[in-house]
Each structure stands twice: as structure tokens, then as C-alpha cells.
Write a structure and sequence with these properties.
Helix content is 41%, strand content 7%. By secondary structure, it is mainly alpha-helical.
């Protein structure tokens, strides 16, 4: 599972770890890594592929702002605990908050080996590079908006060849939370135009034009690598 940063500490530096997966009826892979989009380079030439989850970029930002910033969730991690010189939650406007996480999808896919993406504005060149990396690498991409439809984990079931995931009709739980701020249409337009122009274009392209890889042709897990024992 490749990580797209949603909290500032992850943009600064997320420790990608490789963990042994215990025997379980849902699992065929023996190792899983929660890292960035250069993780497969670490285990080459072993078969390796990415999947990740994306969401409408403005919806994602609004949810994070309500949860982390206004709600000071998870121990107040963005309310004076992590990087208080940058994140001053809950005393930040949503525009200030969006300025830190602007066009993060575009920058993550355009520069997959990097973790720091907050210190520059995305450009059309980044957008083109992001699309090229996705087309060349063919990650399996799930959408948060589809998780509440029937059989939300079918793509993962196909990837792992597990009928129990293919046939799951709904997720067993959700992580919904109250939104103190519910954006008006004008605010959504403001955020899309000023902070998520390229992310909105990339998200729309993923939803309408990106050809997901043929799950049946993905490489299967091989023997356990000695260097991880």
C-alpha cells in the first residue's frame, strides 16, 4: 500500500517498514510494505506492485482539516504537537491549511521517490510527469467514494485471488467523523482553483481515462527474500 501523505509529518519523512504477514485466509503475499512509490525499487527484481487509495482532493482536504486541524484528533498531532511552526491548528483557516497540502497527488506521483512535497507549487510539467508515471507503473487505484458501493474490495480480492474479498458486499465499519466546517460551493471552487488545480485534473483523469492494470497479469509473490529474515 503506497502512502499519499495526509498529515504534515508524513510529508517530512515517513518511515516505510516491511513487515511479515502472518498466515491468514485473506493473505497470499508474505510481505507487505507501507511506503512511498519507490518501495518496489527496494525489493527489485522480485515481483512487486503498488496499490493505493485516492479521494476527491478537495473532499480529502476538507475531511483532514475537520479531523486533524479543527478536531485536534489523534492526540492533537496538528495542534501544537507536530511542526508547530508550520501547523498552528486549530487556529488556521482552511485556505492556510490547504496551502500546505496543495496538489499533493500530482507531486507525489510526479516525484515518487520523495517525501517532502509541501515546499513548492505543482506545475503542468508535474501533471504530465504524474500521468506518465502512473501509465508506466500501472498501480491499482481504489477510490474512497467507491468504498460504500457493493463489493468495494473486489479489486484487492482479484489481486490476491481471494474470493472472500471479492464477495464482501460492504465494509465492516467506517471511520466517519463530524465536520464542523462544511464548505459552500464557492469555497469548493476557491480550493480547486487556488490549491488543487492539478490534483482535480489528475483525479478526473484517473476516474474517467486511466486504464487499471489487468489484475490477472500482475506478478505473483515469490519466495521470501533472505535479506528480510
Amino acid at each position: 500500500l503506497a502512502h499519499i501523505p495526509q498529515e504534515y509529518v508524513s510529508i517530512l519523512g515517513y518511515g516505510a517498514g516491511c513487515v511479515r504477514i502472518p498466515q491468514h485466509p485473506l493473505v497470499v503475499a508474505r510481505w507487505a510494505m507501507h511506503g512511498n512509490f519507490s518501495t518496489c525499487d527496494l525489493v527489485a527484481p522480485r515481483p512487486c506492485y503498488y496499490f493505493t487509495i485516492v479521494r476527491n482532493p478537495v473532499g480529502r482536504l476538507v475531511s483532514a482539516y475537520n479531523y486533524f486541524c479543527l478536531g485536534c484528533a489523534e492526540g492533537g498531532r496538528q495542534c501544537g504537537y507536530e511542526d508547530p511552526h508550520i501547523l498552528t491548528c486549530p487556529d488556521m483557516s482552511i485556505s492556510q491549511y490547504a496551502g500546505i497540502f496543495r496538489d499533493v497527488y500530482t507531486k507525489v506521483f510526479a516525484h515518487p521517490a520523495e517525501w517532502m512535497h509541501n515546499d513548492y507549487n505543482a506545475t503542468e510539467q508535474d501533471f504530465v510527469a504524474a500521468k506518465k508515471w502512473i501509465e508506466d507503473t500501472k498501480p491499482v487505484i481504489l477510490f474512497t467514494e467507491d468504498m460504500f458501493q457493493a463489493h468495494p474490495l473486489k479489486p484487492i480480492g482479484d489481486m490476491l485471488n481471494r474470493n472472500v474479498l471479492r464477495e464482501m458486499t460492504e465494509l465492516p465499519h467506517s471511520n466517519s467523523h463530524d465536520h464542523a466546517l462544511r464548505p459552500s460551493p464557492d469555497l469548493v471552487t476557491h480550493l480547486e482553483t487556488n490549491y488543487f488545480h492539478w490534483d482535480t485534473k489528475l483525479y478526473e483523469w484517473l476516474r474517467t481515462e486511466y486504464e487499471q492494470p489487468d489484475i490477472a497479469l500482475l506478478p505473483k509473490p515469490g519466495p521470501e527474500p533472505d535479506f528480510l529474515n
